[in-house]
Design goal:
alpha+beta, conserved putative lor/sdh protein from methanococcus maripaludis s2 fold, OB fold (Dihydrolipoamide Acetyltransferase, E2P), 3 domains, six-stranded antiparallel barrel, five-stranded antiparallel beta sheet, MFP_Cation_Efflux, coiled coil, BSH_CzcB-like
Length: 364
C-alpha cells in the first residue's frame, strides 16, 4: 500500500471517530435533560393561609315537610269496594282513589227523591195559590204559606245535594268516590278492598308532595354553642355512598326533646330527584369558620410514619422532601399548621405513600 493511500485511511478513521463522539455526546445531553420518570405525574396542592374551620357531625333523618302533607279521613261509614292506588303511587288532585259503599248514600238518595216529589206537589199548590190570590179568592197569607213550603223544600234538596257532592257520590254506581285532595305521592295507606270504614277511624291514607323535605338533626347540649341558624350543612347517607347534598340550617328548636334530650335543627332540602326519602337516616356535617388563620393542607396529604405525621414537599428543584409536621387543628377534610410549612410550598397529595418510601430510602 502506498504512503498516500495510508494517509487517506488514517484521516478517514479520525473523522469517523470524531463524528461518533459527537453523536454520543448529543445522546448523553438528551438523556440528562429528559425529566425523571414520575415527576410529571405528581399531583400537588399549594399550601395557603386559610381561616381555621371546625366541623361536627349531626345525626338525624329525612322527614316530610308538614306543610305539604294531607291526611285523608272518611266523613261517612261504609265498606271499601275497590281501590285504584298503591303505596308510593304518584296521584293528581281529583283522581279517584277508592270507592266506598255506604248505607248513608242510600239514605241521602232516598231523602233527595222524596223531597223532589214533595217539591213538585208544593209547586202545584203555589201555582193554585197564586191564581186564587189573583182572583181575590184566597188571602195573602195562603200565598205566603205556599211559597214558604216551596222555599223550604228547595233548601233541603240543596243541602242533600251539597252533601252528596262533598262525599263525591256517584249515583250511577251507588257508591261514594274517594278522590285525591291534592297532587303528590301516597306515603301512607291504611285501606284495601273490603276494609270497613267508620267515621271515627284514623287517616285512610296520606299524600305528600316530596319536592322538598325536612332534614331533622339532633343537636346535643355540648354542641349548642357551635351550631347556629344559617350555617351551611353537607348531608350524607349510606344509601348514596360518595354523594353529598348541600343545605342550610333554617331553624333550631328552643325546647329540648323530652325523650332524646336534644334540640332539633331543621334543614329544608329541595328533593328534585326524590332521593331524599322520608325515614332515611342521614349524617349532616356543619362547619364553622373561626377568625384565626393558619396554613391549610388537605388531610389526605398526611403520611403517618413511625407514630409521627409527615407531608411530602416538592421543592423548586423538583426533588422531594419528607417533612415531619405537628398538627395544630384537624377538621373533616383539612389540617391546619401554625408552623412547619410555608405558604406557597407544594404538597404531594397523590401516591405520596409510595413516593415517601422512596424518598426516605434514598436519604439512607
Amino acid at each position: 500500500m502506498s504512503t498516500s493511500m495510508s494517509y487517506i485511511l488514517v484521516l478517514f478513521s479520525v473523522i469517523t471517530g470524531l463524528g461518533s463522539c459527537d453523536q454520543k455526546t448529543e445522546q448523553a445531553s438528551e438523556t440528562k435533560e429528559k425529566p425523571k420518570a414520575g415527576i410529571q405525574e405528581l399531583t400537588t396542592y399549594t399550601a395557603a393561609m386559610e381561616k381555621i374551620t371546625q366541623s361536627i357531625r349531626l345525626n338525624g333523618q329525612i322527614e316530610y315537610n308538614p306543610n305539604q302533607v294531607v291526611h285523608y279521613a272518611s266523613l261517612v261509614n261504609g265498606i271499601v269496594t275497590k281501590t285504584y292506588f298503591s303505596l308510593g303511587d304518584k296521584v293528581t288532585k281529583g283522581q279517584v282513589l277508592a270507592e266506598l259503599r255506604s248505607s248513608e248514600l242510600t239514605d241521602l238518595n232516598t231523602q233527595s227523591k222524596t223531597l223532589e216529589s214533595q217539591l213538585r206537589v208544593a209547586k202545584r199548590k203555589l201555582s193554585v195559590a197564586e191564581s186564587m190570590f189573583a182572583d181575590r179568592v184566597s188571602s195573602e197569607k195562603d200565598l205566603f204559606e205556599a211559597q214558604s213550603e216551596v222555599d223550604i223544600l228547595k233548601s233541603e234538596i240543596e243541602k242533600i245535594q251539597a252533601n252528596l257532592s262533598l262525599y263525591n257520590a256517584s249515583s250511577e254506581k251507588g257508591v261514594f268516590q274517594i278522590k285525591a285532595p291534592v297532587s303528590g305521592y301516597v306515603v301512607e295507606n291504611n285501606i284495601s278492598g273490603g276494609t270497613q270504614i267508620n267515621g271515627n277511624d284514623s287517616d285512610l291514607f296520606t299524600i305528600s308532595d316530596l319536592s322538598d323535605v325536612w332534614v331533622m338533626t339532633n343537636v346535643y347540649a355540648v354542641d349548642l354553642p357551635f351550631v347556629q341558624k344559617g350555617m351551611s350543612a353537607v348531608i350524607k347517607s349510606k344509601a348514596y355512598p360518595g354523594e353529598t347534598f348541600d343545605g342550610v340550617i333554617s331553624e333550631i328548636s328552643q325546647v329540648f326533646d323530652p325523650q332524646d334530650r336534644v334540640l332539633k335543627a331543621r334543614i329544608r332540602m329541595p328533593n328534585k330527584d326524590l332521593k331524599l326519602k322520608p325515614g332515611l337516616t342521614i349524617e349532616a356535617l356543619v362547619r364553622k369558620n373561626l377568625s384565626e388563620m393558619a396554613i391549610a393542607v388537605p388531610v389526605s396529604a398526611l403520611i403517618f410514619h413511625n407514630n409521627e405525621n409527615y407531608v411530602l414537599i416538592q421543592k423548586q428543584d423538583k426533588s422531594l422532601e419528607p417533612r415531619k409536621v405537628t398538627i395544630d387543628v384537624q377538621d373533616n377534610d383539612r389540617v391546619f399548621f401554625k408552623n412547619g410549612i410555608e405558604a406557597g410550598e407544594k404538597i404531594v397529595v397523590k401516591n405520596q405513600l409510595l413516593l415517601f418510601s422512596e424518598a426516605v430510602s434514598s436519604e439512607k
